[in-house]
Amino acid sequence: QVQLVESGGGLVQAGGSLRLSCAASGRAFNSYVMGWFRQAPGKERVFIAHVSWNAANTYYADSIKGRFTISRDNTKNTVYLQMNSLKPEDTAVYYCAARQYSSSYYYMEESYDYWGQGTQVTVSS
Q1: How buried is 102 (Cβ within 10 angstroms: 0-12 exposed, 13-18 middle, 19+ buried)?
Q2: Could you give the CA distance from residue 99 to residue 110 in angstroms, rounded to a whole number?
Q3: Counting CB atoms within 10 angstroms of each CB, which of 7, 37, 41, 50 has the fewest?
Q4: Which residue, among 29, 50, 41, has the nearest Cα to 106 in the 3D structure?
Q5: Which of 25, 8, 14 is nearest to 91 (CA)?
Q6: Spatial distance between the Cα atoms of 124 and 84, rounded to a whole number of angstroms
Q7: Separation between Cα atoms, residue 8 and residue 37, nearest integer Å
Q8: Strands of 52-118, DSSP E
Q9: 12-61-124 Cα angle (round to 5)
Q10: Residues 78-108 pLDDT 10s
Q11: Phi-psi region of 28 (alpha: psi -120 to 50; beta: other; left: phi over 0)
Q12: In the structure, what pLDDT confidence band is assigned to residue 43 with cuts at 50, 70 and 90?
């Protein structure tokens, strides 16, 4: 029903910035809550950030809090992840995810209904 396509990944030096985008299909984007997850090589996929349907609420993992910002533009059916002060440990495949309506378990990947294919972010030292 919903298709998610991430973009904006790439290679960046430590301390640099990237902005990831996730474009969503469908007419009901405004009703979906959105999340970002990442999976480093050899590691499990972990929660990064979440934004409510109207962007009134955002939540972040401690590992990136203060450096990353999640936002959305419902007129463009797009959610963003602005990543600043990147570190080598931020190297991972980044995924966006969508869930219909809110959830108390926004930090769990099992809570999301739709996933993008991911975009690679590599941070060099």
Answers
A1: middle
A2: 10
A3: 41
A4: 50
A5: 14
A6: 14
A7: 15
A8: 58-60, 68-73, 78-83, 92-100, 114-115
A9: 15
A10: 999 999 999 999 999 999 999 998 889 999 9
A11: alpha
A12: very high
Amino acid at 70: I
Contact present, 50 and 70 (Cβ < 8 Å): yes
How confident is the prediction for the chain on average, in pLDDT?
A: 95
Pairing of strands 114-115, 32-39: unpaired
**Paired tokens of 83:** 């990543």
In 3D space, the residue among 93, 119, 92 whose CA is nearest the CA of residue 4 turns out to be: 119
Q: Tell me the residue type at 48.
A: I
Phi, psi (degrees; rounded to nearest 5) at 29: -55, -40
Of 36, 54, 51, the closest CA to residue 90 belongs to: 36
Residue 111 φ/ψ, nearest 5 degrees: -80, -15
> In angstroms, how far is CA 54 from the centroid of its own chain?
16
Whole-angstrom distance, CA of residue 22 vs CA of residue 4: 6
